Amino acid sequence: xxxxxxxxxxxxxxxxxxxxxxxxxxxxxxxxxxxxxxxxxxxxxxxxxxxxxxxxxxxxxxxxxxxxxxxxxxxxxxxxxxxxxxxxxxxxxxxxxxxxxxxxxxxxxxxxxxxxxxxxxxxxxxxxxxxxxxxxxxxxxxxxxxxxxxxxxxxxxxxxxxxxxxxxxxxxxxxxxxxxxxxxxxxxxxxxxxxxxxxxxxxxxxxxxxxxxxxxxxxxxxxxxxxxxxxxxxxxx
Length: 237
Ligand SMILES: Nc1ncnc2c1ncn2[C@@H]1O[C@H](COP(=O)(O)OP(=O)(O)OP(=O)(O)O)[C@@H](O)[C@H]1O
Ligand SMILES: [Mg+2]
Prior knowledge:
27% strand, Rossmann fold, binds adenosine-5'-triphosphate, binds magnesium ion, alpha/beta
């Protein structure tokens, strides 16, 4: 009897990120700084990837181009099925919406808005139905149901980062980018934030790219990638 067909072995896995020969040069014409020097990098949908490397090696810059916050100078970038290479800044901003969630070291909450408004207003601008209901549910999911009307200045660092995580996850993105999300927090708070990011990512089935200096956190990820001087080196996780 012939073997039963194997499960999708002939199909390539779906890629959340496909970056090829990506270059980024900033600075002035007289003093250009080559920041990314030909990055090749693919991430399968649904996997978690830790991005390590020395300070100044280009980790945040790489994340910025992959998240559509910065335009690369050369190479090709496909993220969440979209070709970022050909997009201008407005198109990138639209492309991010609902597809990409971003969590940074400095929480970047709007100081004049409550926790609830910080999460709800971007949803409202994106035309999502019931933005305040969604925002409330997302804040409850990160353990902040009792802090909805607090302003950022009235929240601890860990609580502010939880609001930022709720904001990043509320639109149910396919890909989450996190740049040293525990860098401003004490160790215990940092651990709870990491657990939260992994839990929310699992609930969404999202791809995760996380920049960290913490080898223990890197071990939690499916893959570990190291940057050196604007290029990537990978080792098996
Ligand atoms: N706008 C800019 N103009 C010129 N050089 C820049 C600019 N932004 C970043 N750089 C340089 O690019 C290099 C990479 O910076 P990047 O922030 O990506 O590093 P990183 O790996 O994230 O470092 P860290 O671990 O300290 O956060 C650094 O040498 C930095 O000085
Ligand atoms: Mg950085």
